[in-house]
Amino acid sequence: NIREDLKSHGMDLQPSRIGPPSPTNLGVFARKRFEKGEILFRENVFRMSSPSLNAGEIINFYDVAIEDLKKGAPRHLLSYSNIGPLTASYTGRKDVFQFKYRIVRYLQYFKNKDPTLLWNLDFDVWVLHTVQRRFDVNAFGFPQEREDGGEDVWSVISPIASLFQHSCEPNADWRNENDGIDVMLVKAAKVIQEGEEIYDSYGGLTMNLDDRRKRLMKWIGGDCECTRCVREEKEQSEEDAREADSDVEVASSGTSGFEAGFDSSSNEVDSDGDTRMGETPFVS
């Protein structure tokens, strides 16, 4: 049980303080004080895909699931403990349907792996799509150095880490322990008080507000509403308002000077006896 796992680490799952109130908008909260650098939890991850395969595929997980099915009674793929707590983010962005990518690749995989799975509704296409969508927004990238000095990135899932809400001012950070690909380590980035919500970062911390929000749209499904983004949005709005007021003042000043130079109410006459431009001459 994910809630029991959190409680055993001094944390709890409650309605998040970021975003609109919703039964599904949950966040992780501290049930005790954590000191800076203190380990919040250490968790074994499971590999979603291998860098030797297409990074967007989740063949590694399917392999594991199939082996589990062979060991006992079939279980629905979405009931797996590693998938159950995960949620998908649907941003409203329309994707182009690709028959080869959405249908054929799944069927080909199961045909090669175990043809009987083509008739197993636990692995129906809609189930696979749901799993894919959940993995897409919950995967972490674990780098692994190769013997040739290059680097591969494994896509992995940490069910507990996936529960943390994002903040552009995170109070927790994560890394792969000992540069490996099997263990997620999450520590307090600063002192976390009891009752405080715990946030990590989904990325983009060095970007400006607009670019950061665009990058985070995939995971959040809308504009990031963390304290930093809200503060920077307010500052940006105030700066825009000041610039607009300044433009109005400049325009007003220029208009006043123009009107003053063409004041038709003046009847002054120059030394030659001619009225000035814009003035009405006196007619006897």
From TrEMBL:
Segments of skewed composition (Basic and acidic residues): 1-10
Acidic residues composition-biased segments: 235-248
GO CC, one annotated term: nucleus
InterPro entries: H3K4_H4K5_MeTrfase, SET_dom, SET_dom_sf
Domain SET: 11-203
UniProt-annotated stretches for the region Disordered: 1-21, 234-284
Pfam family name, one: SET
Protein's name according to its UniProt entry: SET domain-containing protein
